[in-house]
Amino acid sequence: MKVAIGQDSHRIDFEKSDKKLVLGAVTFEGERPLLANSDGDVVLHAITNAVSGITCKNILGKVADKMCENGITDSKEYLKEALKYLKENIVHLSISVECKTPKLADKMELMRESIAKIMNINASQIGITATSGEGLTESGKGNGISVIAIITVE
Ligand SMILES: [Zn+2]
To answer: How far is the CA of 96 from the centre of ligand 1 (A)?
Structure first.
């Protein structure tokens, strides 16, 4: 059995209005997007890093940047690229989101199902929690979103 951690943070884009906020490949209408060359799906980025933590094949950075240059801005593709190197079976995925907005409660089930579909596992293998951390960090203050993902494989 192996356990790995992945983390990512993005600032909220207060200027762009044509881009949409995407978390776990679920679109949040009416919310400010995140600053990124890609779609800025910080949840999928943290998961991608967690998978890389197992495989030791880093995707975010050089590989994803190259994909982005070639027009691939959908973060699902970065996660799928990371999963190509994963030989073990996924036991569980735990995701912790820190942000002031959006409120995730209403979309939590959708996110679990969406992530499960991308990773070819059951939604019951994915746990998501969210906190504003009492506004102690920039993300908690509403300036960004931070995510930690922990993956367990066997
Ligand atoms: Zn990112």
So the answer is: 15
Q: What is the pLDDT of residues 47-99, one digit of tens each?
A: 999 999 999 999 999 999 999 999 999 999 999 999 999 999 999 999 999 99
> How many Cα atoms occupy the beta-carbon half-sphere of 13 within 13 Å?
18
Strands laid side by side in the 2-11 sheet: 2-11, 144-153, 90-98, 126-131
CA–centroid distance, residue 2 to ligand 1 (Å): 23
Give me 75's structure tokens: 């973060």
Domains, the chain, with CATH or none: 2-153 (3.30.1330.50)
Tracing tokens 């499960």 back to the chain, one arrives at: 116
